[in-house]
Design brief:
The protein has two domains: 98 residues, Rna Polymerase Sigma Factor, Chain: A (Orthogonal Bundle), CATH 1.10.1740; 102 residues, no CATH class. The longest helix is centred in the middle third of the chain and has 47 residues. The radius of gyration is 32 Å and the shape is rod-shaped. It starts with a helix and ends with a helix. With 206 residues, the chain is an all-alpha fold. The chain has ten helices and no strands.
Length: 206
């Protein structure tokens, strides 16, 4: 590239650069992407400065041709990334569905989670503290800032509502008995049916 080529390109960029940036801004979502595309266009232009037309009008058209090629490459890259993301998302969703089907006690776990979610807020939290977090009823009462007698009455009400929900659910009788027996006999082991990841998800929802 000669000094004359460099000077001609500098003049072209000064005249047409803002228009090329606006061209990109109208065609991509983010202004930062538009600035990056302008940078790529100028880099290509500098590498090919020796072929910039001498006529100012033709030079401007040439620069927009370079910009169009850069934008086309960018669009292909975006589409490729979207296809890859869609493929990965589909694979993850399929793996999650298969894992859910294969998990032991999956139907019973789902029934218990749904039943707990449907409880009034203060009852649901009491159940979580006792059965998922391992606190005693007295400790749960202290954490919730209520008296022991209040906690006991709430716990009894929660068990009653959960029994009704499980009895009315779509599970088979054997699965209802499995979920209900764990829930209602002594201190049931809901943690077996609601692993930590499940617990966190339900807590976030409520």
């Amino acid at each position: 590239m000669t000094s004359a080529d460099g000077e001609r390109l500098n003049q072209l960029i000064e005249r047409a650069g803002p228009d090329v940036l606006a061209y990109f801004e109208r065609r991509v979502r983010d202004r930062e992407d538009a600035a990056d595309l302008l940078g790529e266009t100028l880099l290509v232009a500098w590498r090919r400065a020796d072929v910039v037309p001498r006529d100012p009008v033709q030079a401007r058209m040439w620069l927009f041709g370079v910009a169009r090629g850069v934008l086309s490459n960018h669009a292909r890259g975006v589409r490729r990334r979207l296809r890859l993301a869609d493929s990965l998302r589909s694979q993850l969703e399929l793996a999650a569905r298969e894992a859910a089907r294969e998990a032991p006690g999956g139907a019973a776990r789902d029934a218990v989670v749904e039943a707990v979610e449907a409880l009034p807020v203060e009852l649901a939290e009491l159940v979580r503290l006792v059965h998922w977090d391992g606190f005693s009823l007295t400790e749960a009462a202290e954490l919730m800032g209520v008296g022991s007698s209040t906690a006991r009455s709430r716990y009894a009400r929660a068990r009653e509502l959960l029994r009704e929900a499980l009895d009315a659910g779509p599970l088979s009788r054997s699965r209802k008995l499995e979920a209900g027996s764990r829930l209602l006999s002594g201190k049931p082991r809901l943690s077996e049916m609601c692993p930590k990841s499940c617990v966190r998800e339900v807590e976030n929802l409520t």
